[in-house]
Specification:
Distance between the termini: 81 Å
Largest sheet: 10 strands, antiparallel
Helix content: 10-25%
Strand order of the largest sheet: 20-21-22-23-24-35-32-31-29-30
Length: 736
């Protein structure tokens, strides 16, 4: 096992860019020097002792890392530490699969794993080239050195076991750091005195949420790793189910050195009394919250007597004519790979290579402390996947369910598993299609069923559910469900504030927005090694007055090809029914038109801020609803890999598109930015009912007719189950 390391000064400080001295290699390898700004490279593994992979491989190239693979990757990197002190100070922020290039995935799907399509293999005169093995799986590790305040990216080859690294920047906080920050603040004597002024002597009542600092000025520069916590206070220390977010502590300014667990700055700037306990603050069942639950809710049972219609092989999912793979990462959470539709004699038709949520930003509209700094990058700073739940049957998901576990590393390098992290199940979705012939009375109707894949995470006070729905008519719906507890502020007695809603005495909820970024690496009808997609924008136009519009009611859809990345920075426009179509330039349907899938926006908005807003330095991607780029494997996160305390302006997507690469026939990546503006209501308290937001991917000329035409009528079993309640009701009436 050999290790090479490369460090560059970035958002975490550290050594200057350039060549660095390296530690002695572990047994069985050699030491190398790398240039700091070069991408991670990997030396050739020794052939001796490495088994040749045969067709019967255990892990698909896109399968998430197993617990054993994570443990091997952590041990490899830890062993490469120069000294025992360095090894002990390593904090493992993230260990994730380094996904291979698309051609490797196609190779695996063609020969090594379902759906087994040898026709996808490269051909020679003698027939297809049959590979003897796939490239080794690789892990990518983000490691923070608490001793030196450096962050590094390591790449470990799991089959040929050796590693390479390059310098990185600051990542967000870890659960261990949250706990350490809370303990540091609660043990700080000036803070204890400030809480006594507010009538709090028991530090067990105090809650400290360690928010990332972001970047507002040189004081937030990455030469130190800092947190700017928000403070709350429960009413009863012996009530763990109490809603502590109902009593925010305001007027205290505090900055914590997260590297050394010390308070850097403290000032009790303004005495704001704690809000009085609100009798409506709790949300637990019945008497535990001081209320009574409704008693007229009858059980709702979902029965699939013959089992589900889906089939699962490892992470490979087949449902009706859909098939795809499920992945999971600490930052994105659920990832959908290799989405395809089996279309009769046309076979398996690819639609998308990779679908995921790659960033979230939540800016607040109150200019007062501490609310103006609430601009969380929930994926880039905290990680959606790392904060995911173990889902509960009957509550989070209902019906016949297949769960998938997720494996992560904790801050010290131990492996943790979130059981039942991803839920997959079928849902009835009302009517799929229907028509009644008024002359004959003949009626044909079909029920719609969808396959839903989801996970739910908690980021401090808010919960987010992320859903991908697959429909029988070829649609793919992306949905986010927002719930949880409002992030509140305290008011002086009698004070009103226009930047929020008063929801209880001396308690208010600031206005804010939630933005989500979906990254869709499209592959519409593209076989391996093909890059034949383009994007057109469609706007509905009213025909000008004249001979072509004599009745003044003519309108039509006008298409415009988005030829380059700068031209493809677009915004939603409901007034023109604007949408976008990803088309294959070399595959046509029966009318001779290019096959395609269109992106249909749902409700949306843009940031309510001035162009000079500080949070836009790191979130330049929020300036437009749609961005389109030509695929590049290292362009994954729109705010860059490390948005926390990042001093660079518009790092990530807004910088990448300045290359203005051609989009006329290439690998297309859609970045759809969608948001919701939250003006809090009293009805959002104490826990917010779910808000829905999302978008749709819909076939547009992809099929020759409706793909749902072959969905069969409901079976006799379905009809009997539907009639049973009526029969019972009729029998009851008869007896009465």
């Amino acid at each position: 096992m050999a290790a090479v390391q490369d460090k560059a000064q970035g958002c975490c400080g550290g050594a200057p860019a350039g060549k660095v001295a390296l530690p002695a290699a572990a047994k069985g390898g050699a030491v190398k020097e790398e240039i700091a700004d070069s991408p991670p490279t990997t030396a050739k593994a020794l052939a001796k002792g490495i088994p040749i992979m045969t067709r019967a491989q255990r892990s698909h190239p896109l399968d998430p890392l197993s617990a054993a693979e994570i443990a091997v990757a952590v041990a490899t990197v830890r062993a490469a530490g120069r000294t025992p002190e360095v090894r002990d100070s390593m904090r493992f922020v993230e260990v994730v699969l380094l996904e291979p290039e698309k051609n490797v995935v196609a190779l695996a799907d063609a020969y090594f794993f379902p759906p087994f399509q040898p026709s996808l293999l490269p051909r020679t005169k003698g027939g297809p080239v049959i590979p003897s093995r796939l490239p080794p799986r690789r892990a990518r590790l983000v490691v923070y050195n608490k001793q030196t305040n450096e962050t590094s990216i390591w790449v470990v080859e799991l089959s040929e076991v050796h590693a390479a690294t390059r310098g990185g920047h600051h990542r967000g906080k870890d659960a261990m750091e949250y706990a350490e920050c809370e303990a540091t603040v609660k043990d700080f004597p000036p803070f204890i005195e400030a809480m006594k002024k507010r009538g709090i002597d028991d530090m067990e009542l105090v809650m400290v949420d360690a928010w990332c600092a972001g970047y507002y000025s040189d004081a937030d520069a990455p030469n130190r790793r800092i947190g700017k916590p928000l403070i709350y206070c429960r009413t009863e220390s012996d009530s763990p189910m109490e809603n502590g977010y109902a009593r925010p502590v305001e007027g205290i300014h505090i900055i914590v050195d997260m590297q050394n667990n010390v308070v850097l700055e403290f000032e009790d700037r303004k005495f704001v009394p704690l809000p009085p306990p609100d009798h409506l603050r709790n949300y637990t069942p019945g008497e535990t919250r001081g209320g009574v639950d409704r008693s007229d809710v009858k059980p709702l049972i979902i029965s699939q007597s013959e089992g589900p219609s889906f089939r699962i092989t490892g992470s490979f999912v087949e449902w009706q004519k859909w098939n795809f793979r499920i992945g999971f990462t600490p930052k994105e959470g659920l990832v959908i790979h290799s989405v395809a539709y089996v279309d009769g004699n046309r076979g398996r038709r690819p639609i998308a290579h990779r679908l995921s949520f790659v960033e979230m930003v939540v800016p607040y509209g109150d200019p007062n402390e501490p609310h103006y700094r609430k601009n969380a990058f929930d994926a880039g700073e905290d990680g959606l996947g790392k904060n995911a739940h173990s889902l509960k049957k009957g509550c989070d998901c209902l019906g016949y369910i297949k769960y998938f576990d997720a494996h992560f590393t904790n801050f010290t390098g131990g492996v943790e598993t979130i059981e039942n992290c991803v839920c997959l199940h079928e849902e009835d979705h009302g009517i799929l299609w229907k028509h009644q012939d008024w002359r004959t009375g003949l009626t044909e109707v079909r029920r719609s069923r969808r396959l839903t894949v989801s996970f739910i995470c908690t980021i401090a006070n808010y919960e987010y559910g992320f859903y991908w729905h697959f429909y029988q008519d070829g649609k793919i719906e992306s949905e986010v469900k927002l719930t949880g507890i409002l992030s509140l502020g305290a008011l002086m007695p009698g004070e009103q504030r226009k930047y929020g809603t008063t929801i209880a005495p001396s308690l208010y909820a600031p206005v804010h927005q939630h933005f989500f970024v979906a990254r869709m690496d499209m592959a519409v009808d593209c076989k391996p090694y093909e890059a034949y997609n383009q994007v057109v924008e469609v706007n509905v136009k009213v025909e000008s007055a004249g001979p072509h519009n004599v009745h003044n009611s003519a309108f039509y859809a006008e298409e415009e090809l988005l030829k380059s990345e700068l031209q493809a920075m677009r915004d939603c426009d409901p007034s023109s029914a604007r949408h976008w179509i990803v088309r294959n330039t070399r595959t046509v349907n029966r009318t001779g038109q290019p096959t395609g899938y269109k992106l249909i926006p749902g409700s949306n908005c843009l940031p309510f801020c001035l162009p000079e807003a500080k949070f836009l330095r790191r979130a330049g991607f929020l300036k437009h609803n749609l961005w389109v780029t030509s695929y590049k494997s290292d362009e994954m996160f729109p705010g860059g890999d490390f948005p926390n305390q990042n001093p660079r302006i518009h790092d990530g997507l807004a910088t990448w598109v300045q290359k203005d690469r051609s989009l006329e026939e290439t690998n297309i990546v859609l970045w759809y930015v969608f948001g919701i503006t939250h003006i809090p209501r009293l009805e959002d308290w104490p826990v917010m009912p779910v808000e829905h937001i999302g978008f749709m991917l819909m076939p547009h000329g992809f099929f020759n007719c409706s793909p749902a035409i072959d969905v069969p009528p409901p079976s006799d079993v379905d009809a009997k189950e539907a009639e049973t309640p009526k029969e019972i009701h009729a029998e009851l009436i008869s007896k009465l």
